[in-house]
Amino acid sequence: HDYPTLETTITATFGFVIEKLAAVLPNKTPSGSPSVVVALGNNDVVPDYFFDIAKLPSLVILEEASVMLKNGVLEADEARQFKRCGYYLRAFSPTFRVIVLHTLLWSHRIQPPIPAGEEDPCGQFLFLTIELETARRANAKVIIMSHIPPMSDVWKVLSNRDFTSVSEDMYWKPVYQERFNWLMTEFSDIVTVQLYGHTHLFYFQALSEGVPFFIVPAISPLFGNAPSYFIAQLDDESLSLKSLTQRYFDEKWTTGVRVEDLFGDLTDTASLRASAMRLVTDDALWAKYVKLRAGGVGGEKRFPGGECDSWCRKVIACNMVSNVWDDIRACVEAKEKEPSRKLLIIIPVVVIAVALLILGVGILVVYRRRQLRYMEGVRDT
User: Fold this and answer.
1) The whole model's pTM is what?
2) 325 and 372 part of one domain
3) Is the pLDDT reported for residue 360 higher than 80?
4) Do 320 and 176 sit in the same domain of this protein?
5) What is the pLDDT of the chain when averaged over all its residues?
6) Within 13 Å, how many C-alpha atoms sit on residue 123's CB side?
7) Membrane spanning segments where (predicted)?
């Protein structure tokens, strides 16, 4: 992280990681494609977040392509595509493809900033659209894979204890996010899932229209998380995501929970959205999510400032159902106005207690009156 200059070479840093990935066995799929798919992040350019689209090809990208080719995690035709701006297509079979995007290009933090009015930095949207159309014609399924996700910087919002602005709080620029949202809705019949990284912590997002995404946790424990990853299971026919099983390191590698056991069918947008909003009030589900989010373990660094309070939970839940800044903020504000779960429990209990008290008093009054009448009758006789 945060290499300020090229004094430490790409080969010595990025190359070390690629060598380890290349050692994963089997390193080839049955079709002969490399088994490892690599997506560039903001820390894979030097300095961090630096990518000048006015000066292409990027020397950093060229060196990374060379390292990936040398280690067999990138094929020659993929490398030609990758050298342009860091995005490429991996076709595992005629019916299964992974589109790898370089979403730093759509980020607020890219340096130098993308000029205002630039509709398609590096032609990445054109590439994405063509590949999605090609996949549809081939009746193929697609997984979208990248690093920086199309959501807000939840950690920053929680650290600030408030929403600041679109440019400060959101990872992507709205103009690119809106266009991407449209593509995911338009091609939701062939895109089965989106996978991202960047946050180091597990999240998911399910918009009312489009394709759900999941953030794969980090191996590096920089945010109080334990090193962790997921084992994914795809449906044999539809290639949709059936299961995500957590594996985390806590003195030894351990199998954690399955995401679908917490949030339901990973392809069911409505179910995922409902489960996300349950995190606001369902303490049992929240406790399981916190453990999943942090890589299978707890710790004070799980959230900025320590534990996550009611407002914090609302921010996290609302980010799981929207990626529009105004909508996320409105969602949190609306949830803040709702009575708390404890209050919803206390009020009925109090009402029932008062009703029982009134009933008890009424019974005592009736009993006392009958007793007095009986005593008066005895005296009269």
Assistant:
1) 0.86
2) no
3) no
4) yes
5) 88
6) 11
7) 343-367
